[in-house]
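Example record

The entry below shows one chain as it appears in the dataset: sequence first, then structure tokens.
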Amino acid sequence: MSAAIQSPASQSEYPRRIVCLTAETTETLYLLGEQDRIVGVSGFTTRPPEARSKPRVSTFNTADCDAILALKPDLVLTFSDVQAEITRDLVLRGATVLNFNQRSVTEILEMVSTLAKLVGKPREGEKLVGALLRLLDEIAVSAKAFPWRPRVFFEEWNEPLISGIRWVEELVLLAGGEPIFPELRTCGKSKDRVVDPSLVISRNPDVILASWCGMKVKKQEIRSRPGWSAIGAVQKNRIFEIRSSLILQSGPAALTEGVRQIHSILAQVVGVEIDPLLRPAEKADPRFL
């Protein structure tokens, strides 16, 4: 064999330099103890806080491909159709890219497992998936103690009005609520989950959970929408914000802190005390939690 050609045994078996263009893969690698492989992250990355010290090379739908390639990545991780053009541009420029597209709780767990295998940590991946599943099971059991299940409108965006993506609606259901637009749960694209404000009025949610990606929720705007004063959630001041970094990232944050916040809010609405271990670590709404 020519000395210029390396045998497979002499090559690195797993990617050593990874760029993560969305926050959930960054958090997953940190939880696996593989953060040293990360050489670039999304500008929206917040978990864990130390990840923000990594070079930031993208927003959610734009990326600096020159900066990414300058990092000499073995692998770039992207997400969904929103980053399809970024994926295409990087592939055309010779990068190895994996585009995840998880939209459900099950698919999030599959992403964690797949990423663990990609970095040679399948057992650690199994342990992490197991821990996430145990927490979800504990919350589901806790929710069974609710005397009633509040009707919930999860507002993913305000203009146009968009209902929750699949993993969010699944977590609302698991945490003790009843999503008011179950028929839209499997619609992956946000444009397919646009709802008429009048339908929210007619379905009369007991609770409104709002999370506007990258933007602070304006509760007064929600209260003042035409006709919304007739909604039970508005009348009883049950409008709560959950930070998008905790619930709209399709990764561990949503399956831990995000679902804890939803469960804690719904538990207080129905008047049930929950196990302190299931309470959120961060405040979802200082007025309420």
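Notes for this example: The radius of gyration is 21 Å. The beta strands are 18-20, 38-42, 56-58, 75-79, 97-100, 151-157, 162-163, 178-179, 207-210, 239-241.
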